[in-house]
Every structure is written in C-alpha cells, then in structure tokens.
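hey so i finally got around to running the thing on that chain from the lab meeting. sorry it took forever, my laptop kept dying and i had to restart like 3 times. anyway pasting the input first so we r on the same page abt which one it is
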Amino acid sequence: MRLRLWMVLGLVACTHRPRSSAHLFPEPVTVMGHRGAAGVAPENTAAAFDVAAALGVPFELDTMLCGSGELVVIHDEDLSLTTDGSGFVSEAPLASLATLDAGSGFSADFAGEGVPLLGDVLGKYTEQVVVNIEVKGGRGTDAGTLAASVVEAIEGAGVEDRVIVTSFNPFILAAIRAESPAILRGQIYGSFRDSDLRWIERVLLRNLAFNGKVVPDLLMMEAAHATRRRVRRLKRKGYRVFVWTVNDEAEALRLMGQGVDGLITDQPAKMRALVEKVGKRN
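ok and heres what got predicted. didnt touch it at all, straight out
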C-alpha cells in the first residue's frame, strides 16, 4: 500500500506548467506586504493596505465567507483573535461584522478599523498595486461555493489581471482553476511542522503532490522550508518562488542569496529598503 502511494505521489507531483507572472512582479525581488503591513498597522484592515499602497508594493490579504455569504477580509475564523467580537466568521452575518473593531487590539490609534469586504478592497487598491488573495475555507465551507464567490468578486471588480489567488488548500485552488483558469494561482506550502495534519498529508503537501489538480503558477514557501537546493530546483521548473513571513534582515539576505523571487513581510518599508540597498551593490 505504501509503495503504491509513493508511486502515485511521484506521478502526480511531476505536473509543472507554471505561467509567467513577470508582468505583475517585474522586480528581481518583489517585496509583498503580509496582511497589508501587519507589523505597522492592524492586519487585514484598510489602514494596513494603505501602508502598502503608499509604498507601491503588492500586498497579501486573507478572505473567507461570512455567515450571510459575503467574502470578508480576515485571517482567523475566531473573531476574538483580531477583533472585539466573539464567535466564528462563518456564523456571523455581515451586519454583525460591520459593527466590530479590528484596530484597537493593535493600537488605540487604530480604533474603529473595520472588517473589510473583499470586493471593496479590490475596487480600491488594485489600480495602485497587485493584490494576493489568500483564500481560506471556514467551518463547513464548500470549496466550489467559495471558489465561485472569489471569482465573482474578482471579475466583478474587473481585476483578473491585477491579482493572484493563493491558498494552503489545494482543493480550493483546483476549484478556482475550474471557475476561471486565467487567474494566476499560487500554492502555499512549507514544513507543516506545527500543523495538525497527518504525516502523509504533510508529505503530500510538502512535495506538491496536488499539482495535477492545482497547476500553480507561483509557489509561496515558508521561509524555514526554503533551502538553496529546494529553491533552485523549483525555479528550474519555471516557478516564481515567494517566501513567508520574512521580517529579519539577515534572513532576507540569506533568502535573496538563494534566489527567491519575493519576500512576504510584515515590514514592507524595511524590506524594500534592504532590497534596494542590495540592488545598488549589484
């Protein structure tokens, strides 16, 4: 049984057909804000997105369906982790979410920052910068329904060529591909050491065993998983490799030396200054 599983893993994992994303990320090393700019403003809020947009750097955000069916921008399903609310996003209607404060937990200076709608963020920021939409499946969420909603939001804003869609969940990405093959997709993965996945699930995800379903264009790799050998092997297959979450300058220099294409960071101003400094040396 195990031999058969590894044979399947080897066959599926060899599907590599990444499309170019150079038109979105023309720099030798792209700096991308994590959850907007989570080190200097409350994550996944307009305040954090404003920071990234003012710097002119692309940013990543997280989205999931709320209880009334709209796509909201938030990382954790447990509302108490990033807002003054309680309960779960998947059970909370938009009218309830609209009353929550997502800024005070970061600093009193950001009191009143709300939970944004994905459509509003796409409409406001994609003219300035590229947006990386990380899609998260909440409790009991159907991948097909979620994918259809994400594609509808992207197409409704007319920004198919200004976004990428990423996820840890390959089944969500496969559903996105089925809904709209043209939108660029990025598979997020890493060591999964701290996850509650089973051993075989960690092995499959680390080895990109779902590439046959997802056919990703970019790979978003955990920094700890990014060895020189691994990065170079993936780049030889044509992938653009971004790493997360990089806030330390020494680590950033190590990763740039290994040839990564992008740094996803809570501190985009600091990382952009470092990247520019290295570029001038070269």
